[in-house]
Specification:
alpha+beta; 3 strands
């Protein structure tokens, strides 16, 4: 069990071949949320950049869902461009750490999801422009 202010990462990146897959997190029940805290969480997520591309994870379309509750619990579903991504084990932890530093956040749950698969269409127009894909 996590103490307030402590981040919790329960879902891991892809498992090695032959290993049991991690159990998916059960999405926490939402409440009315905290719009101001959600803005701060999204700002923190925009500071996380893909190490191979000069674009943040939000604009790349790698953040699928963010829920911020009034009690400071933050639940994030994210993906990577491919399960074989070299940063598959590090990036979720980086997301978790940076979001846990946001004042008012008590617990951070990060879940890696692969469905639906990431495609370039998930990228923002700014990201496509930055990468020369327009």
């Amino acid at each position: 069990m996590s103490m307030p202010g402590e981040a919790t990462h329960l879902a891991d990146a892809p498992t090695p071949q032959g290993a049991a897959a991690p159990r998916p997190l059960q999405r926490p029940q939402p409440d009315d949320g905290d719009p101001a805290l959600e803005q701060e969480v999204m700002a923190a997520l925009r500071t996380v950049r893909d190490p191979e591309l000069p674009v943040n994870l939000v604009d790349l379309g790698l953040i699928y869902h963010v829920m911020v509750r009034r009690d400071g619990l933050v639940y994030i579903e994210m993906t990577l461009t491919t399960p074989a991504c070299p940063v598959a084990t590090a990036l979720p932890g980086q997301v978790q750490h940076l979001v846990s530093l946001v004042p008012g956040v008590s617990v951070v749950l990060v879940e890696m999801v692969w469905d639906p698969p990431w495609t370039r269409e998930r990228m923002s127009e700014d990201a496509r422009l930055e990468l020369g894909l327009l």
